Amino acid sequence: MRDVWAAQNTRNVSGQVQAALPAHGSKLYKITPNQATSPSKPADVTATDVSRTTVSLTWQPSTGATSYKVFANGQQVATSATTNVVVQGLQPQTQYTFTVKGVTTGRSSEVSAPITMFTAKSGGGPVRYEAEASTSTLTGNAGISGCTLCSGGAKIGNIGGDATVTLNNITVPATGTYLVRIAYTDGDTSRQSMLTVNDADTYWVNYHGLGDNDWGTPQITYLPMKLSAGANSIKVSNPTGYIADIDWITV
């Protein structure tokens, strides 16, 4: 705020200002609003876990935000002082669209890009589909190998080039986006593969290797995938190089 006639800047004030004036006196003030900016928009909202009534979310920080508001289908469902939250009180087997806003005193960011996710069905958690099951389809040199720490004591290896594994009959009750988890072993530093759903939609997934040539210790990664109501197939491949060995997929 500036006292125009006195040609002086006054101290920062908010709300109101008072000045002593002589009889019939006056002052002229120039008031410049605070130029504070709103927080930046949160990025990379990702689901990391799903149950019948909860969805765990994480995102990249919003510059200038001191907290976050989380929305499901347009309604605020949670607040968080960190870049992750567990949204509770959801309905089983229901698709929700989640968004996040960064918040600071009196200001908020634009809404984040949305992420859509189904909660798990009633009466049980995610269903596991073993890569080495008889219902899977193998091509090329892809084959079953023993793995003491893997589920069922086996996994599918030598996947890459024309060698692929397709997990069949992955069943969901309704068309929508589901959190798909993949168990794998990777003794290299990092590998990646394509996941092709029903010979149509393709997703890329990165396998973070241990870098110690340990191909017997399973790890888990996850990604949201759109599946169709009924039975689905997920083909795991990489036409240009070898990938991690695959233990199982859960939906």
UniProtKB/TrEMBL annotation:
GO terms for molecular function: carbohydrate binding; hydrolase activity, acting on glycosyl bonds. InterPro entries: CBM6, ECM_Regulatory_Proteins, FN3_dom, FN3_sf, Galactose-bd-like_sf, Glyco_hydro_b, Ig-like_fold. It comes from Kribbella caucasensis. Residues 41-123 form the Fibronectin type-III domain. One of its GO terms (biological process) is polysaccharide catabolic process. This is Carbohydrate-binding protein with CBM35 doain. Keywords: Carbohydrate metabolism, Glycosidase, Hydrolase, Polysaccharide degradation, Repeat. Residues 127-251 form the CBM6 domain.
